[in-house]
Amino acid sequence: MSEAAASAEPKERLDFKALFPVFLVVFVGLVGFGLIIPVFPFQGQAVGATPLEITLAMAAYSFGQVLGAAALGKLSDRFGRRWLMGFAAFGSALSYLIIAEARSIEMLAVARLFGGFMAGNIAIAMAYATDVSTEKTRAQALGLMGAAFGLGFVVGPGLGGVVAGNSPDWADFERVAFVGAGMAALSGVFALLFVRETVSKDQRAANRAAPRVSALDLLRARPGLARLVTMNAAVDTSAAMMESSFAIWAGERLGWGPLDVGLGFMLVGVIVAVMQAGL
Question: What is the spatial distance between Cα 236 and Cα 242, in angstroms, rounded to a whole number?
Fold first, then answer.
């Protein structure tokens, strides 16, 4: 084929119309998630928890997310993306309501573990982006989901800090949790009303009948994927270490409250969003 003929071919475009509802689901859900990050350590201190207990309670979220991403991703293959995405969002809303009523670090940890499991709907959103994209537009589609993640992390911590203020009492903690529950429920409504199903009934039946392949088997069969997973785990671990301990450190060394911490994380989110959208 000549260069002129090749240049005359229409450029394949991303199906933004199909992706936009899921972009909103991820964005709104991450706003709710981000709300809690600058406030949770101070809430833990309010119930008498030590820094170690607070960071372990925050780590419960990530542990739940590891389990939820694998489980909900597989379930969405077998039962459809839209319903699982909505179910997970409403489950996240419930976890925030538990945080509002928690009066011990153990209950806060349980709420974060459950919330992390329900945050596995991010994996469903990534699978959906793969469903509606082609080989040529897939990187752009996944980058758009990453941008939604980053933008949610821009708005969420700043909003959480504003809602809580720098000298929060228990009513302020409850208010943040209720706002988070409302954001998660709103993302569930978006999912059920506006996301179209991408896995047909025949595909779902075939997926249910297919032999199960464990994640470890998949990684052993694809060394390149295993290396990417390892790299991503290292990056996420370093970020989680900062997120779980920064508020405690900043509170003790700098006298920062939730508002200051939230604005600091908001700046981090701006950098993440720019890098995700650009790269």
Answer: 10
